[in-house]
Amino acid sequence: MGLSSLVYPGAHHTRFHHALGCLHLMQQAIYVLKSKGISINENEERALQVAILLHDIGHGPFSHAMEKSIIGGMSHETLSLKFMEILNEQFEGQLDMAIEIFKGESKRFFFNQLVSSQLDMDRLDYLKRDSFYTGVAEGNINSERLISMLHVIDNTLVIEEKGLYSVEKFLMARRFMYWQVYLHKTGIVAEAILIKIFERAKVLIKQGNIFKASEALLYFLSHEIDSKNIDKSMMERFSKLDDIDIYAAIKNGCDHEDFILSKLCHMIIDRRLPHIKIKNQPISTDKLAQKTNHLLNKNSISETDVHYFVFEGTLNNIAYTADKHPIYLLKNGFKKIDIAKNLTPAFLLALSEKVEKYYICYPKKGF
Predict the structure, then answer these.
(1) pLDDT exceeds 80 at position 298
(2) Domain 12-176+324-355 is found in CATH 3.30.420.10
């Protein structure tokens, strides 16, 4: 949830909560499919459960907010796979099948879909969980009913026809949650400031300045890490990081002698975030220049550093990708059809059209 708790105070649940929830839903899905005559042996059951339990283990502090910031250019999926491979060595190859499923390479295609698809156990858990903890009722879904409607035809996961309206509600809930929670403007600007705090910290450390932080966090701030130099010891360091490391470093940063770092840290701790304006059209260069010049004229900040406080970005969301691994309905008990054929054109367009918005951030009065 990143820094969504600044908007929704109840949103303090963790990836660990989510991982356990996904495991529970996977166990339910396996039971439902087996009860409908789908053959899943004991080793496959265990592999499915391990794959979903570990699917997010590569997430670092504040989840997506700092993804690719600590270890440059590497997604949480890549890091999750690294962790799984390390664990597989310790367990002498017992995670082989789980890794195959996680990578989407299982010959039993519906195994891959249960872990990662447009209607997987991951989404069924996080939508219901995030809706509950934020209090955003529009995101609430009936995951139990959706799971009870699962079946397998031609090695593909399908939803029984009577589950059509539950799927529609699921897709709409995902759309609402992105715009009301995951892409909420306050969360967006808070996460942007969070990233800029550690961009600045890296610059200061390179210049020989002291930055107080945990040993693990300092290591990643002091070294350029990418896929070429990451190894088991690096992953062990990464595993020691959590939100507490980040918050402690930000609190220490409030008292740093560097004005920029101190100001950025205070924005998070004091909840005095910059203004953020979201538009349907790209931010004009004149508007960006106006806000930049206004800040330069009133504060002793150099042109090279103004980007810490005045910046722009884009937001985009697609609730359903109609042409990529579609959700299938089971018709007449034996035929699978793309769910898009059963959705009204207007509804399908609203879900599958990429919505892109643009934002500009700049300091409030009294900066």
Answers:
(1) no
(2) no
Per CATH, 12-176+324-355 and 184-272 having the same topology is answered: no
How many other CB atoms are found less than 10 A from the CB of residue 228?
7
The topology under which CATH files domain 184-272 is: Growth Hormone; Chain: A; (1.20.1250)
Q: Which two tokens stand for residue 34?
A: 């087996």
| Helix (H), strand (E) counts: the chain | 15, 7
Q: What is the model's pLDDT at position 345?
A: 84
> Helix 76-90 and helix 232-239: axis angle, to 10°?
110
CA distances from 158 to 37, 113, 288, 325 (A): 14, 10, 48, 11
- Summarize pLDDT for 32-70 with one digit per residue, the tens: 999 999 999 999 999 999 999 999 999 999 988 887 778
For 171, half-sphere exposure in the C-beta direction (CA atoms, 13 angstrom radius) is 25
Tokens of 76: 């949480």
From the list 122, 158, 116, the residue with the least C-alpha distance to 23 is 122
Taking the domains of the chain in order of start, what are their residue ranges? Answer: 12-176+324-355, 184-272
Burial of 262 per CB tally in 10 Å (0-12, 13-18, 19+): middle
Q: What's the rounded Cα separation, in Å, for the pair 276 and 185?
A: 7
- Greater model confidence, 25 or 224: 25
Strand-by-strand arrangement of the 156-160 sheet: 150-153, 156-160, 328-331, 335-338
Mean pLDDT, the chain, whole residue set: 93
Residue that wins the pLDDT comparison between 98 and 295: 98
Q: Is the per-residue pLDDT at 228 higher than 80?
A: no
- Is 297 a residue whose pLDDT tops 90? no
Write the single-letter amino acid at 214. Answer: S
Token pair of 87 as six digits? 């664990």
Average pLDDT over residues 118-137: 96
Which pTM was predicted?
0.93
